[in-house]
Each structure stands twice: as C-alpha cells, then as structure tokens.
Specification:
CATH superfamily of one domain: YVTN repeat-like/Quinoprotein amine dehydrogenase
Number of helices: 1
Subunit structure: Component of the ASTRA chromatin remodeling machinery complex.
Organism: Hortaea werneckii (Black yeast)
Radius of gyration: 20 Å
Structural class: mainly beta
Function: Component of the ASTRA complex involved in chromatin remodeling.
Family: Belongs to the WD repeat ASA1 family.
Keywords: Repeat, WD repeat
Amino acid sequence: MCHVPSANETANNQTPTPPSIHLAFPGVQDGQIIVTDLPSEKRIATIPEPKDIKTGMVMAIRLDYTHERHLTIIGGYESGHASVWRRNPSSQYWERIYTYQAHSQPILSLDLAISLGSFFTSSADAVIAGHPLSSADGETKVIQTRHAGQQGLTIRSDRKIFATAGWDGKGRVYSAKTMKDLAVLKWHQEGCYALAFAETDLGESHENGQIPYTGLVKRGMTVSEQRTSAAKSTHWLAVGSKDGKISLWNIY
C-alpha cells in the first residue's frame, strides 16, 4: 500500500484532488499482481507473471513512487525470484526492469527504500539480499546469515537499518548500507513472525526531506515533558512472537 502524490503537488496541474491510496495484492493466477486505487476502487494495473520464468505464487509485494512520480512495484515470489515493474511513461505499458533469484526458498518479506535506490528481501532460507531497483543501477548483494526463516523485513524510516523476525525466536538488525548484522534481539522463547518500527513525532531523515532531529531539549520543559519528548523521538522496535508476547526494543 502507498499514498498517491496529490495532483496539486504536480507543476502542470494546479487542481487539488482528494487523497487516494494504491493497494496491491496477488491476483487469481500465479505470479499476478493487481493494483487498485482507493477509494475509487479502480484497477490501475495488472502485472502478469514474468513470461520467461516460473515464479509460483506471489509471496510479498511492495510499491511506492519514485522522486520522479513513477510508480514502482516489487514482487517477491514462491520460486525465490524478485522482480521490479515500472510503467513506461510513453507507452503506458508495465515493464519488468529487474529480476533476480537470490533465494532457494520462497521469499517471505521485502521492503523498499527509494532514497537508497534499493530493496531488501528475506526468505525461508538463510539468505538476506539487497537488490537494485533496475539492472542498470548496480549489482545484487547476497548475504548468507546461517539463520533460516527470517520474515517481516522492515526498513527503519531513516533508512539506516532494517530488521527481521526470526523463526528461531530472535529479532535481527542489519545495516542498510553494508548489510552487516548489528544486533541480535534475544528474549522470546518461540518463533518471531512480525515486527514494526515506531514512527517518531519529530523530524528525521525521511525520504520526504525533513530535517533530522537533533535531540535538543527546549528550555522550561519539566522532567515529565522531557521523558515524553524522548519517548516520541525514539526509534522503538516491536517484535511479535508465537508465544503471544510482544517485546519492545530501543535501537540506536
């Protein structure tokens, strides 16, 4: 799901339009991706299965707009392939601009960072992969972590790190730049299957160009207000497990 840039943000169209959302989901056929506009419920894209490979089911989808307002759709498949699709502005046809099979098992999760020009995938195997947004933008980086079954891959809003939830009951944090593992979060007694980063209330290095938060405390704030301000500016990470518990972590 992604928010659509409004028409009044476009230089050649000054007429404001109601905000809308694009929602992507697997189609009836294997490898097919459907994109629908909400609230109009209009189908805006039908992405077919790649013709030259057998992908199986769509396991994960991510979509977002580039800085040039080009809608980019990424699909992760049962075969372990990942593909990037983008609409050709002149023909209006959807073109597959990247495909790579980094995994031997089905892709479980993926996330996209437009500002980094890349996206990351995790799988039922022990591989974490970093992909360019097109074949011309760089090489795919594959890391063998030796920890099978990492899912829920999520990139933090400042694009510095990403994290995964592991079937072995551990959350793992990686550098988005080097893909090196930075932290292992050990607490749960059973497998972890979901995680989420908190969005801070204060400005940070988002892809929309906001100014980073400096951590300065305003004069006259009470101790309670300072604690509240610190909590709102902390990059909390929540990890959910099969044990029915959610752990909360303060990641640097």
